Known about the structure:
Elements: H1 3-10, H2 14-19, E1 21-27, E2 30-36, H3 50-66, E3 72-81, E4 89-99, E5 103-112, E6 117-127
Antiparallel strand pairs: 1-2, 2-4, 3-6, 4-5, 5-6
Amino acid sequence: MKPEEIRDFFAKDRFAAMTGIEILEVSEGYAKTRLVVEDRHLNANNVVMGGCVYTLADFTFALAANCGELRSMTLSSNIVFNSPANGSVLYAETEVIKNGRKICNFLVHITDEKERTVATVNVMGFRN
């Protein structure tokens, strides 16, 4: 898909839309997204729920990995939570490690508005 088509396609991602994730930039092998933190994103410790942070990373990977000729889905991923997500805005940005025909590998960096690393997610994708 082309960058202008990817936005329309992923507008149908109901879970990401319900979460409130915004697409800031997208191109083949790259994406940047933002999540304005609301009360609904917080866990009992008053920080952003880990699953919400992971959803932001997975959606950002999907944008970057599916912008181009090949379709991708998450095959495996590993998340490291580096610091509590207690800011008011979270950003996710991809870095492509391998962009192969059958397997792709992306590193997604999650930061807050103070540019503090909240999490890093290594995502392996399968292409069909």
